[in-house]
Design brief:
Pathway: Polyol metabolism; glycerol degradation via glycerol kinase pathway; sn-glycerol 3-phosphate from glycerol: step 1/1
Strand content: 15-25%
Bound molecules: adenosine-5'-diphosphate, SN-glycerol-3-phosphate
CATH topology of the domain at 2-247: Nucleotidyltransferase, domain 5
Helix content: 25-40%
Keywords: ATP-binding, Glycerol metabolism, Kinase, Nucleotide-binding, Transferase
Structural class: alpha/beta
Shape: globular
CATH class of the domain at 2-247: Alpha Beta
GO cellular component, one term: cytosol
Organism: Thraustotheca clavata
Radius of gyration: 21 Å
GO molecular function: ATP binding; glycerol kinase activity
């Protein structure tokens, strides 16, 4: 029996998962990698460590499954995270700058002041922010000695993590990205789906260092003969949030999902229409299957979700493992008046305020670590509520149900809080690994393992569902306190 594999290279960990034709998981292996924090607000990853983890995850998964036939492999990845390496030696010039790294705040202020953000939004669908790759490339070119010269000479090449992994898997030959990842760089025109020369000139980024932009589902390369996936077609690439949208089979305009991982990412399929946002959402590429028309999406990105649980564990040490947050939160009736806005990387959608910093407010002598744990979970749900409300205003509709996935969905208390705040059903599918599944689907479609998307629709089934129970009065009181807490984060930096 043949399987389709997916490499899911996330912010905190890397997985390789084998799926069968029904979308069931046959085997998987996962490894965490080091988060390097050289200064407050900075975060970088060692791409050699990530690549080593990919190789181990692939080997271990294949061994667990008894070394089966692999029909195709897809790649899905933390998006925007940027690395530049030497095309001859393969060595990275610097650790990858992670999507939530804020070292580029000055570049952003300069660009916003001098050029305004509207031109970027018009062309790429994104505001100028520390989040996207363009300013990370500029920082690397300006701060790593000799790098600009190497880039201009054609020796240094850029990639998001999809591109880097494909380049490694192909035996250092193929330098390609997919249109969903390219749409997160702030350098790609949504209209042409090519790099935009006006923006490249403005930012002084040499075009020759950028990968070729291709669809999300086609054979890009065969795994190198000497590698861990010899001659296996690498035939799907999607940014991880777009992969989750695809894995959740949100194929129709209006269908939406929210992924609860390190951050939270709400995304709604908008069909073949590019819908500009006036409410602080991102207009982005959903996916493109081979030669079919590109499908677009609107996204609400929240920088800190599961990361706040890691922070309570690693920095405050009030829990020793992530699951303990639920036990603590459940041991109190409510948040005891405590509100926690984890604006560790400023605030992303719908606010886009890099001057914001985290606050814990409403503290009295009554507050305990249990209340803080509850406030942390509520913060995740409030942030998702904010982006959903922005989407509802933008699209003039009310969301009645939300498909969810990601590592935090094991937390049933969070799912119930989310349902209450949204006043909508929250639905978790049978296969919770929707990100990897989406990449596997893209890869399998390209090689005919699945014939069409109708074959994928039947694989999506409900595993659990949460219905709201909260009075409108209680909801509006707590939401208005959350808004006051948000106000207190602003104008800090
Ligand atoms: N029981 C839990 N309750 C709350 N958060 C959890 C729980 N288990 C894991 N998490 C959080 O989920 C996140 C991992 O989710 P995952 O989808 O694997 O993230 P990513 O793809 O961003 O690496 C971590 O930030 C972790 O703190
Ligand atoms: O790896 P995740 O799940 O934290 O996702 C990160 C996003 O792709 C950042 O845009």
């Amino acid at each position: 029996m043949a399987f389709v594999g997916a490499i899911d290279q996330g912010t905190t960990s890397t997985r390789f998962i084998l799926f069968d034709h029904k979308g069931n998981i046959a085997a998987s292996h996962q490894l965490e990698h080091t988060q390097i924090y050289p200064q407050p607000g900075w975060c970088q990853h060692n791409v050699e460590e990530i690549w080593a983890n990919v190789e181990v995850c692939v080997k271990e998964t294949l061994a667990k499954a008894g070394n089966p036939t692999v029909a195709a492999v897809g790649i899905t990845n933390q998006r925007e995270t940027s690395v530049i390496w030497n095309r001859h030696t393969g060595e990275a010039y610097h650790d990858a700058l992670v999507w939530h790294d804020m070292r580029t705040a000055d570049i952003v202020h300069h660009l916003t002041h001098d050029h305004g953000i509207n031109r970027f939004r018009q062309i790429t669908g994104l505001p100028v922010a520390t989040y996207f790759s363009a300013v990370k490339i500029m920082w690397l070119l300006d701060n790593v000695e000799g790098l600009r010269e190497a880039a201009e000479a054609g020796d240094a090449i850029f990639g998001t993590i999809d591109t880097y992994l494909l380049w490694k898997l192909s035996g250092h030959t193929v330098h390609v990205t997919d249109v969903s990842n390219a749409s997160r760089t702030n350098l790609m025109s949504l209209e042409t789906q090519q790099w935009d020369q006006e923006l490249l000139d403005l930012l002084n980024i040499p075009r020759s260092m950028l990968p070729e932009i291709r669809s999300s589902s086609e054979v890009y390369a065969l795994g190198a003969e000497s590698g861990t996936l010899p001659n296996v077609p690498i035939s799907g690439m999607l940014g991880d949030q777009q992969a989750a949208l695809f894995g959740q089979t949100c194929f129709e305009a209006g269908q939406a999902k929210n992924t609860f991982g390190t951050g939270c990412f709400f995304m709604m399929n908008t069909g073949t229409r590019i819908i500009p946002s006036s409410k602080g959402l991102l207009t982005t590429v959903g996916y493109k299957l081979g030669n079919e028309p590109t499908v677009f999406a609107l996204e609400g990105s929240v920088a800190v979700a599961g990361q706040v649980v890691q922070w309570l564990r690693d920095n405050l040490k009030i829990i020793s493992k992530a699951s303990e947050i639920e036990t603590l939160a459940l041991s109190v009736e409510d948040n005891g008046g405590v509100f926690f806005v984890p604006a560790f990387s400023g605030l992303f959608a719908p606010y886009w305020r890099d001057d914001a910093r985290g606050v814990i407010c409403g503290l009295t002598g009554y507050a305990t670590r249990e209340h803080l744990a509850r406030a942390a979970l509520e913060a995740v749900a409030f942030q998702v509520m904010d982006v959903v409300h922005a989407m509802e205003e933008e699209a003039n509709m009310k969301l009645t149900s939300l498909r969810v996935d990601g590592g935090m969905t094991v937390n049933k208390t969070l799912m119930q809080i989310q349902s209450n705040l949204l006043n909508a059903k929250v639905i978790c599918p049978r296969v919770a690994e929707t990100t990897a599944l989406g990449a596997a689907y893209a890869a399998g479609l390209a090689v005919g393992y699945w014939k069409n998307i109708d074959e994928l629709r039947v694989n999506w089934q409900i595993a659990s569902q949460w219905d709201p129970f909260m009075t409108e009065d209680d909801r509006s009181k707590t939401v208005s306190q959350w808004k006051k807490a948000i106000e207190r984060t602003l104008n800090w930096e």
